[in-house]
Write a structure and sequence with these properties.
Largest sheet: 2 strands, parallel
Order of helices and strands: HEHHEHH
Strand order of the largest sheet: 1-2
Structural class: mainly alpha
Number of strands: 2
Strand content: under 5%
Number of helices: 5
Distance between the termini: 42 Å
Shape: globular
Radius of gyration: 15 Å
Length: 145
C-alpha cells in the first residue's frame, strides 16, 4: 500500500496546485467568452475541492499521512502554478488540457498500483476520476475546434 499512498499524496499535491491555478484563471480571465469560461472554471475548482478531500481521506484510510502544506504541494506536484495576470481563454485552454492529461495519466498509474496492492476502494475511485476527466477533456478540447 505504500506505493499507492505515495502516488495518492502526489495526486493530492496536483489537485491542490490545480485548484489554486483554476481559481487564479477564474479571477483573471478576460475576453468575449468571459461569462462562459468564468463559470466553467468555478465548476472545475469546486469539483476539485471535493476530490481533494476524497484523496486525503483515502490516504488516511490506508494508514498514511496526507501532505498538507503549500510547500509540499509545490514540491511534489507535476502541475505548475499560474501567474497573477490577466489571461485570455485561448491562452488557458491548452494549459488546462495539459494539466487534465497529467491527471488522467496519474489516475491510471494509481489504479494499476491499487489493483496490484488489492486496494479496490481506491481503484474504484480512480475509475470515477478517469471517467470524469476523460469527459472534461473531450469537452474542453471542443473549444479548440
Amino acid at each position: 500500500m505504500e506505493k499507492t499512498a505515495k502516488a495518492l499524496n502526489e495526486l493530492l499535491c496536483d489537485f491542490n496546485v490545480l485548484f489554486r491555478k483554476l481559481q487564479n484563471f477564474h479571477w483573471n480571465i478576460t475576453g468575449i467568452d468571459f461569462f462562459e469560461i468564468h463559470e466553467k472554471l468555478e465548476c472545475y475548482y469546486e469539483n476539485l475541492s471535493k476530490q481533494i478531500d476524497e484523496v486525503a481521506e483515502q490516504i488516511l484510510t490506508l494508514g498514511y499521512q496526507p501532505l498538507g502544506t503549500m510547500k509540499d504541494y509545490l514540491e511534489f506536484s507535476q502541475i505548475s502554478e499560474a501567474s497573477n495576470e490577466k489571461v485570455q481563454t485561448q491562452t488557458i485552454i491548452p494549459i488546462i488540457i495539459k494539466d487534465f492529461e497529467i491527471l488522467l495519466s496519474k489516475f491510471t498509474m494509481i489504479k494499476e498500483h491499487c489493483d496490484k496492492e488489492k486496494v479496490y476502494i481506491t481503484s474504484a475511485l480512480m475509475d470515477e476520476y478517469i471517467g470524469d476527466y476523460s469527459k472534461k477533456l473531450w469537452m474542453i478540447k471542443a473549444l479548440q475546434a
